[in-house]
Every structure is written in C-alpha cells, then in structure tokens.
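We modelled each protein-ligand pair independently. The example shown here corresponds to the flavin-adenine dinucleotide entry; the chain sequence is given first, followed by the ligand as SMILES.
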Amino acid sequence: MSETWDAIVVGGSAAGLSAALLLGRALRRVLVVDEGQPRNRFADHMHGVLGWEGESPADLLRRGRADVSRYAVTICEGRAVSVNADDESVTVELADGTAVAGRALVVATGLTDQMPDLPGFAQRWGSTVLHCPYCHGWEVRGQRLGVLALSPMATHQAQLIRQWSDDLTLFTMGTDVDDALRARLASRGVKLVESPVVELLGEGTGLTGVRTEDGVVELDALFAGPTPKPNDDFLADLGLDRADTPMGDFIAIDEFGRTSHPLVYAVGNVINPALTVPMSIGAAAMTGGMVNMDLVTREFDAAGA
Ligand SMILES: Cc1cc2nc3c(=O)[nH]c(=O)nc-3n(C[C@H](O)[C@H](O)[C@H](O)COP(=O)(O)OP(=O)(O)OC[C@H]3O[C@@H](n4cnc5c(N)ncnc54)[C@H](O)[C@@H]3O)c2cc1C
C-alpha cells in the first residue's frame, strides 16, 4: 500500500470497476478504494443491462471484482476522506488514517439519493417507489402509477412515465403547473392531485396507495426523483471546477471524464445522475482508456526530456 500506484480509483462499483479493468489490462497498477454502498443496493434486480437483464446488482459487482482481480488491480475496503494533488501525483487520505498515492485519480463515488421526509417512502425505495422507468417501468407497466413531484422536473417525468401506463397520477406537492401544462397532461389522461401526500400505504415494501391531506389514492407503484447529492465532499481541497446542471451542481468534466485538475478524472453518477449501469460502465471504460493515454503521454514527455 506504500507504493505509488499508476492510478487510484475511488469507488468500486459499475463505473470504478470498469475504469479499473481498462487500466489493469493496460498493465497499470491500480488501487480501487471502495466503501461498498452502490446506489442501486436497494433493488434486488437490475434491468436495461445487456447480458445481465433481471440479474442482481450485487452479482454484477462480484463478477466485476473477479474480472479486475485477474490484473494488477488491488481492491481495498475503505472510505476516502480527502485528496491533495500536485502536477505529479495525487494523495488520497482514507478514514482509517492511511494515505495512498497515485499518478492519477479516478473518482467514481456515485451519489446519494436524498429521500424526502415522508412516512413510508424510504422503506419502499427500489421496490415500489422507483426512480427510473427504463430500469423498472416494464415491471409495473399498465398498473396504477403515480409520480410524486419532488422538484419541477417531475412534470417531465410524468410525461415520460405515461409511456408505461395510461393510469397515471401526478401528485404536484406544491409544484407550479400552469394552464398550458395542465392541458398538456390532461390531453393524455394524466390526473393531477394537488393535495399534498402525507404518507405511503401498504405492508412492508408493498404499496397500496398514498394518503393525501384529503383522502386516499390507490396506487401500485410511485415514481419519484429524490434530490441527487454527488459523493464528492472529499475532493473539496482540490477546488475543482463545477457545472451547474438542471439536475444540480456537479464536478465539471470534458467528454473523456477529465476534470479541471490534469491528474483527476470523474465518471459515473458522481458527475451525472442520469447514467444507468451500462452507461456508467461504458463512460468509465472510455475514461480508463484516457487515463492510460495521458500516462503514456507523460512517460514519453519524461523520457524525451
Ligand atoms: C433503487 C435504484 C435502482 C436502480 N436500478 C437500476 C437498473 O435496474 N438498471 C440500471 O442500469 N441502473 C439502475 N440504477 C442506477 C444505478 O444505480 C447507477 O447507474 C449506478 O449505480 C452508477 O454507478 P456508479 O459506479 O457511478 O456509482 P455507484 O454504483 O453508486 O458506486 C459508487 C461506489 O463508490 C463508493 N463510495 C462513495 N463515496 C466513497 C468514498 N468517499 N470512498 C470510497 N468509496 C466511496 C460507494 O460506496 C459505491 O460503492 C438504479 C438506481 C437506484 C437508486
């Protein structure tokens, strides 16, 4: 652990392991530091992942870890708490007090879905309270669906989810829905409930409906987009450039995952909450290749000098 790694990857899930795989196959010595809390850990099955349709997210990660372990990739359980970097190397401090150094850093720490303080919401997250129709819409197609507006983006989410069911209710939760939008939603039969939802109903992770301040609306599944908070606090000392996006404030990257620091890269949900598992794997594979290419360039520059 005292060596200087070619690359340190913080976050060992879909994105991090994919970047590590490319780097390992490029004969790079890689350290993956992972806390083991992937975003989709609440779901038993994942969908839209070619070759892994309906499989468990945990199985994908088990297989991914085995894949990278065939190369010079070391996986260490731990949490990165701070990072410092100069022009040559990056030092990552871990929660147990150890520090590891690398010639490049790939940040793949995902995000935290900040649940609303609504009774019954968190316990159903990933089973009957869903965030993404591409991931879980097929399983509830044609059923009584709801969209809980946790932000103005929910009116777009409602239009999207109408694709999966013609029995759809948008719970506005105080979101402004103007007359034009009201008419647009009504034109395809989307119902509007303005009375605030105060509780989700049903046994365990099952859902039978929601209670509003005015009564009960029966439902089979509820879609909602909790506020995404990127897991990037530990990078604060780097002062990386940030991008203000419709989905929040994220580390700014170029098309290859490079941040404003030349040795630091970021991939997956930590820079884009809309990336699914295969999108994260794909983007991180490209970034892993780019990290190697940048190391190659530095090595030729140094040899030439
Ligand atoms: C309920 C739910 C269900 C989903 N279902 C699907 C689906 O069916 N299909 C699909 O394609 N997508 C699905 N997704 C989206 C999927 O979770 C993401 O696309 C994917 O997890 C992104 O991968 P990632 O590697 O960027 O982040 P993550 O998978 O979240 O991994 C980040 C890793 O970094 C670790 N980490 C964080 N901070 C630190 C730190 N400081 N130090 C060390 N390690 C750290 C975390 O513990 C975690 O292991 C779902 C999401 C949710 C919320």
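The chain has two domains: 4-113+227-304, 116-224.
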